[in-house]
Fold this protein.
Amino acid sequence: MSHAYLSIEQVDKSFRRGGTTTEVLRKVSLEVDKGEYISIIGHSGCGKSTLLNIVAGLTDATSGAVLLDGKLVDQPGPDRAVVFQNHSLLPWLTVYENVQLAVNKVFGKTKSAGERHDWTMRNLELVQMQHALDKRPAEISGGMKQRVGIARALAMEPKVLLLDEPFGALDALTRAHLQDQVMQIHAELGNTVLMITHDVDEAVLLSDRIVMMTNGPAARIGEICEVPLPRPRQRIALVADPTYLECRSTVLRFLYERHRLVAAA
Amino acid sequence: MQTIARKPVTAPMDAEVPATQAPRSKAAVLTLPVPRRPAASGRLARAVRDIATVTLPPLLTLAILVAVWEMLCSTPGASLPAPSAIIENSWQLIVDPFFDSGGTNKGLFWHLLASLQRVALGYTIAVVVGVALGTLVGQSVWAMRGLDPLFQVLRTVPPLAWLPLSLAAFRDGQPSAIFVIFITSVWPIIINTAVGIRNIPADYQNVARVLRLNAGEYFFKIMIPSAAPYIFTGLRIGIGLSWLAIVAAEMLIGGVGIGFFIWDAWNSSLISDIILALIYVGLIGFMLDRLVALLARGVTRGTANT
């Protein structure tokens, strides 16, 4: 029994379909401290999304357990808010209503209507989306949608924020902009973050530690790379930073030398 | 879903630059031309043109068809009346749809109203039952396995085949007609609702699970809005079918109603009245369809998943 804020303990996951069993994750253990920013990186199909879903409670582990703040995770909940890869905003609700839905559900009993409105607005301001309150998701850009998705997740005041390839579907410039924003929010609020990514630069830029996963089936944690870069981090200044480059090459070597994806998907 | 292509009513790009800028004389004081705003008249002209592009082609087609019809049926011994003959023969019905001489001798308005009332009642029941059953079938695998084969068989039974059975059960024409409308329009509503519910993206379900929405919140905040485009497809097919069924059912049950009016006209050899009634039936059916489509557009606004 550990005392980490979030601990993933000996998690196995296998899917059974018909007579065949596919082992996705084997004995995955990870401890995350409060306020830490962790990236999980690996080739596609290595089960990193499955791991995130297990932490979120959306998928059950075959064996092993996830503990958050001393409590066993056995179902999804707003204390582990997820930012989905494709934003998953409800298209029939406006930007404001999408966030408000979460706020009303989580704080319906503890905050007054006025406080809930202020809280909704505050989170939308945090991602600088207060200008598009009455727009529907179809009317805003991909980057904006993802920002609203982040605002919705932040509004739940989660103990741990789960980001499932949050910038994967965005163009490079928008992605950089959003990464900066997430970094700033993280500095401001000190959230504990678990982020799935397959972008090495993104992982090094944002994370305190990078968890590298081996290829599936039966993926496990191959290596963990500490990123001892001081915060706040500046994208431009880091380009030539030796620590940055070293971390970057560690991850790259792991992914492309030792754990190359043989059967390229 | 069809949408009428409509040009945006923004300021026209081709608002002509006034041609008065041409230098008249070199020493003359340059009078700046007053920039012409896209005048109200210009906008009106544009609107008229837009309407014309939508309405002119069908009107033209109609005119040609009526002309051909007139030619074909003007010959002596033609079995069907020509348009001019219809106007002449059924003039009373055309000019006064509101007369009421008691019994079934009423103006077309009253017949159509009676039919519409039956449709409204039967269709409303079908909507409630259809959405409820569709939700059940879409939601539960076991309900689907149990009910879907049954639905697939029953929905192929023609509307009129239900009529004798419902007459036997209700022993009265009025509820039988309503039942026939219900049973005709309920299937597409059930099936489309079920498909819509089954196609709720896993993402929305995950959002609901993370937020821990309860069953009621999930139903109203995720399920119904997400399935709305499918449900409305079912509703639109349903309203069309129920209008089809009512005319046929009323022919058999009698009483006031457009179906019986047609049958009555046939028995009295008033072919002109039949054709007039058919035109009304078609127009009303078209309007019902448009009404549901309009409702769908309003309700499902922004539901497109992007």
Observations:
- The longest helix of chain A spans residues 172-189.
- The first strand of chain A starts at residue 6 and ends at 17.
- Chain A has a mean pLDDT of 89.
- Residues 89-157 of chain A form one domain.
